[in-house]
Fold:
Amino acid sequence: MRRQGATGARKRSTRLSRCHAAYAIGPRMSLKAAIIPVTPLQQNCALLWDSETMEGAVIDPGGDAEWIAERVAEHQVKVAHILLTHGHIDHASGASLLKRLLGGVPIVGPGIEDKFLLDDLPNSGPRFGILDAEAVTPDRWLTDGETVTIAGRPFAVIHCPGHTPGHMVFVDAPGKVAIVGDVLFRGSVGRTDFPYGDGRALVTAIRTRLFPLGDDIAFLCGHGPGSSFGIERRTNPYAGDGAA
Ligand SMILES: [Zn+2]
Structure:
């Protein structure tokens, strides 16, 4: 869920025309990404893998788990685990079914502070047009400062609360790639108008924990096109250098 509102629902029949082609992300040409938009909220589920080993991960399967599993099979990726940046419905509600479809791969993350959101997914689903949302019990919670392996690379786990209390961002700083969920978008930041939201904490996390990692780090985000830390540091109206 982004600050400026969702992009609107699209009919399921349009899905076959969506672009989910694989492309290289970052300077390491063997790191491939396929963005798979899911749910009426058009959340960017991401499939990342190494084209040499074919090992990879699914990040934020918010719904449409069968569709995601088909894309995994299409790209012939060996999924090691499912990663969750945070507990919102459009990021997590397909995780339990996808885990079963992929043979029981572990669900890793987000921070345990988002447990209340994961527990409530079946109740909150219908409000967002997601009727098959399942609660999620991760196999492992994540904590700030550890690393997770994505496509054979270590990604630092960085706690960036504010949008949700347990939101985690994954950054491979040497590889110049980050997965930021709903913390930061091209030209926007995550919503904080929830009872548990904290806009100051969100902007502080972006400015003190993400931007210092390097202007040349490209990121994938939960909605819309990606960007880079440098572009957003210079131009983002909510978190950039020129913001209040
Ligand atoms: Zn969210």
User: Anything to note?
Assistant: The chain has one domain: 22-235. The two ends are 23 Å apart (CA to CA).
